[in-house]
Amino acid sequence: MTIRVAISGASGLVGSALSFALRARGDNVTHLVRRVAARTGGEARWDPVSGRVDSDLLEGHDAVVHLAGEPLASWRWGGEKKERIRSSRVEGTRLLAEALAGLERPPAIMVCASAVGYYGSRPGEQLDETSEPGDGFLADVAVDWEAACEPASEAGIRVVNTRFGVIVDRDDALIARQLPLARVGLGGRVGNGRQHISWVATADVIRAILHVIDNPEIAGPVNVTSPNSVTNREFASALARAIGRPAFGWMPGLLAKLVFGEMGRELILTDQDARPARLLESGYEFVHPELETALRAALGSR
């Protein structure tokens, strides 16, 4: 059955791939854009800064996938960057959720991006969707981000918060920053290398979003991560093998904190072993459950 899906952040890594996948299976896609929407159709305007949403153009959509947000990866997080990270997620989500709640024909489902940053750094713990939130800037943002969906859920819209892990794709900002060092043999571990990384292949991100749209029994938080997390040391080794290079480099944890500041602590040195319990329980089968094959597919290596 053909459905109508609206997507924010449609020009990004996940949004563009999701748009392609939906159209490939025959669905109709509307892009939520911040500029004036094209008159030819297929677009609707939403502007979190001015608080404007073309609600009339969202009437009758079956699903809305909200992916927009300020990129996390940068050299350091200053006060303005942190505020953009927070407001783009929390205020943008609340605006869209309120707009959807006010429709005469609201969508059946709102899929809202979130992140495993919700759990904070939790060495030695295996985390699933029932785990409590952790501490830190990203954990606080994720809690408020998911809570901003409440107007939609209170209006009877099924809300799914997809908690993404590190997305394995050559165009992902974190991977893109590691590749130049890895190609010259310096892509080794950071810190002690024992911190867990919850990762996921782009193909599984897209298929997981389609899976939660198509399965009405799924609601609430859903970890979108491979069932096989790896340590930072294992990730560095797998990346080196995928591009046929050694991994001699090593960045001390103290240096990572000095160079990257809070971003280094929250994105590079954090320890998160998040398992996709709800996806697996609902029968989802991963395309790339193992890191090295996911890296080879993402980087086009054999």
Question: How does this model look, in words?
Answer:
- By secondary structure, the chain is of the alpha/beta class.
- The protein has a single domain, classed as Rossmann fold, CATH 3.40.50.720.
- It contains eleven helices and 14 strands.
- The strands form four sheets. It has an eight-stranded mixed sheet, with helices on both faces. The chain has a two-stranded parallel sheet with strand order 8-11. A two-stranded parallel ribbon has the order 9-14.
- The radius of gyration is 19 Å and the shape is globular.
- The model has no long low-confidence stretch (mean pLDDT 89).
Topology of this structure?
Blueprint: E1 4-8, H1 13-24, E2 28-33, E3 43-47, E4 52-53, E5 63-66, H2 79-101, E6 109-115, H3 137-147, H4 150-154, E7 158-164, E8 166-168, H5 173-183, E9 189-190, E10 196-197, E11 199-201, H6 202-214, E12 220-224, E13 230-231, H7 232-242, E14 250-251, H8 253-260, H9 262-268, H10 277-281, H11 291-299
Parallel strand pairs: 1-2, 1-5, 2-3, 5-6, 6-7, 7-12, 8-11, 9-14
Antiparallel strand pairs: 3-4, 10-13
